[in-house]
């Protein structure tokens, strides 16, 4: 298990740091890819992915990984590697932790504790207290911020849903008739909530993610937006919000049940003359 025993830059970028850690986890750095995670964690999977929920399956994954990351580091007796980043988060989000007691060791590295004569047990007790406070006061906000970073990463979402696809494909209709229309295929949700449509539209910048057509109605009035599954339901996709993208009507109808075409279409702010080889 990767620990947090490293120096932290005090720059308020913990959401980005942790988002990068999620990418590594999805690629197997600690063998906590989606299927293995679901074996460890208690997730009401079918309810969660049968229709869109604001607290997505990815929120659950992030929450589990971040909790496990800090818990593991505490178990390995690296209290400062937990205290320092959590204190930084408390300061950024204006969470009062002063009632936890004096902590003059904040900012030190774990290897410095003995050098400055601090009692390891007392420091570890403080680490457990601030970890508990994080769980009570800050975790939902932090998970939401990490999710915001990852929801903009279409490649991550595709890989997350590809791993989930392997779990869905083995589900049997006879075991889950309320959720499946046939083996390995979820029923299509009848309604996409407005909050999901707005979120996907904003993330995809109002452009079809297959052909790039403008769907904002600024340039054309006749282009109809559609909200398409990245991994089609017929191929083991889900109705989790992480599995939706914006497409035009033409691409949505021509995509086909088994196609997983997607792009992260956007425009560069400016071109560098050396960008493309000659």
From TrEMBL:
**Matching Pfam families:** HNH
Looking at the record, the residues that make up the HNH nuclease domain are 195-253
Q: Where are the transmembrane segments?
A: none
The protein's name is HNH nuclease domain-containing protein
Q: Which organism is it from?
A: Thalassobacillus devorans
Lineage of the source organism? Answer: Bacteria, Bacillati, Bacillota, Bacilli, Bacillales
């Amino acid at each position: 298990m990767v620990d947090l025993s490293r120096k932290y830059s005090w720059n308020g970028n913990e959401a980005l740091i942790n988002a990068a850690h999620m990418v590594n986890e999805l690629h197997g750095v600690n063998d906590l890819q989606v299927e293995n995670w679901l074996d460890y964690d208690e997730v009401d999977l079918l309810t969660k992915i049968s229709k869109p929920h604001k607290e997505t399956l990815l929120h659950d994954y992030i929450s589990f990984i971040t909790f496990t990351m800090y818990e593991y580091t505490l178990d390995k007796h690296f209290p400062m590697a937990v205290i320092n980043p959590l204190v930084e988060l408390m300061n950024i989000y204006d969470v009062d932790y002063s009632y936890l007691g004096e902590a003059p060791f904040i900012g030190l590295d774990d290897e410095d504790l003995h050098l400055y004569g601090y009692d390891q047990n007392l420091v570890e007790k403080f680490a457990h207290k601030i970890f508990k406070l994080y769980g009570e006061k800050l975790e939902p906000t932090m998970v939401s911020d990490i999710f915001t970073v990852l929801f903009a990463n279409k490649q991550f979402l595709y890989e997350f849903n590809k791993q989930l696809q392997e779990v869905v494909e083995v589900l049997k209709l006879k075991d889950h008739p309320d959720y499946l229309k046939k083996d390995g295929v979820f029923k299509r949700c009848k309604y996409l909530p407005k909050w999901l449509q707005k979120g996907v539209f904003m993330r995809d910048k109002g452009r079809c993610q297959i052909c790039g057509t403008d769907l904002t109605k600024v340039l054309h009035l006749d282009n109809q937006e559609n909200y398409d599954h990245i991994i089609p339901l017929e191929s083991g996709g889900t109705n989790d919000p992480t599995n939706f993208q914006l497409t035009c009507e033409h691409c949505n109808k021509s995509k086909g049940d088994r196609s997983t075409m997607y792009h992260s279409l956007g425009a560069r702010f400016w071109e560098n003359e050396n960008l493309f080889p000659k």
